[in-house]
Amino acid sequence: MIVEVNLLDGSPLQIEISSKSSGEDLIEAISKSINILEKDYFGVTHYDKKDQARIWVQNDRKLNKQMKEPMKCWFQVRFYPPDPAQLSEDITRYQLCLQIQQDVKSGKLPCSFVTHALLGAYLVQSELGDYDPVDHGLSTDYIRDFDFAPNQSEDLLERIMEVHKTLKGQSPAEAELHYLDNAKKLAMYGVSLHPARDSEGVDIMLGVCSSGILVYRDRLRINRFAWPKIIKISYKRNGFYIKIRPGEFEHFESTVGFKLENHKAAKRLWKICVEHHSFFRLLSPDTKEKPKFPRFGSRFRYSGRTQHQAKKNISMADRTNPAFDRSGSHGRGNNTANLSSQSMQG
Question: For residues 40, 42, 46 and 48, what is the CA-based torsion angle, rounded to 10 degrees?
Fold first, then answer.
């Protein structure tokens, strides 16, 4: 069967794959096609008509049990690394930059004016190289086709141009590393948000990330449950529950409960928590026979490699940091000329 994949640079990719293939087989085929070795940070989503939302394809299940014809999916970052500098290859960081730029443009990753300008300048440096008044002119017209922010203004373009002038000498890979160093500091970097209600019926958002579970109300973070503080997470009907270790001056465990839209939403949030905890906190995935965390709610267990295993795997790989083409898609879509790039290691 043919699976139509939308890549992070906006280009389509057709994958021919067996109808009995799993989600993991699809990720493997996509990663091989675009030369990604650090594939464990990525996943694919598909559109669920019943839920009217894009949901993650499960790696350990067959595709034909999850997706319907025509097979269409989106290649995306599933686990945002807390420190992108620790990724081994520039091509992986480039893909992460593409994902973050999507998050910024869509408003999923809110930024201040100053941060928008800084990130925008690094994108321009990566794609166009050093500012040159002869090639680029004296106005902002040379970056007008870029899509930096949800509502970008002339003031923002002028500020991006000013910052771009100061980045002379940075290679595309260096500019992207600086881009990621700034993006990772943003409050909503790598946070998967889920609408819910607290025990008093107040609308909140639950966020899942590498460090734990976050609670937001009116766009402000009001609580944080770090993974080491959590004993167990569970769901029942549309309820989602977090059991917390007692604090320094407390004697008893406590449980915090939230209500989601329905049972499927609660289960989906629970699965994402299991996956993030397993990927970022465990040396190897839990076995189904002896689960360590969480221990209640479903037989589902994360089946992929953990971050620890992914780092070990890439350290054993016998290949140099590959050169690759930047498709001109950081800001403007994929209709611009390709810019060939060498890695920072040469």
Answer: 80
Whether the bond into 70 is cis, omega within 30 of 0: yes
pLDDT tens digit sequence for 139-179 = 999 999 999 999 899 999 999 999 999 999 999 999 999 99
Identify the bridge partners of residue 225 per DSSP, sorted by sequence position: 213
What tokens were used for 26?
């699809």
Please state the pTM of the whole predicted model: 0.89
Q: Are 314 and 114 in contact (CB under 8 A)?
A: no
Q: Tell me which residue of 132, 164, 133 sits closest to 146, measured CA to CA.
A: 164
- The rounded distance, in Å, linking the Cα atoms of 264 and 143 is 43
Q: Which residues pair with 77 in a beta bridge?
A: 42
Whose tokens are 């990719």? That residue is 13
Is the distance from CB of 17 to CB of 25 less than 8 angstroms?
yes
Please state whether the peptide bond connecting residue 294 to the residue before it is cis, i.e. omega within 30 degrees of 0.
Answer: yes
Residues 333-343: b if buried by 16+ CB within 10 A, e if exposed: eeebeeeebeb
How many residues are listed for the chain in this entry?
346
CA angle in degrees (0–180, nearest 5) for 309-312-316: 140
Measured distance CA(315)–CA(88) in Å, rounded: 8
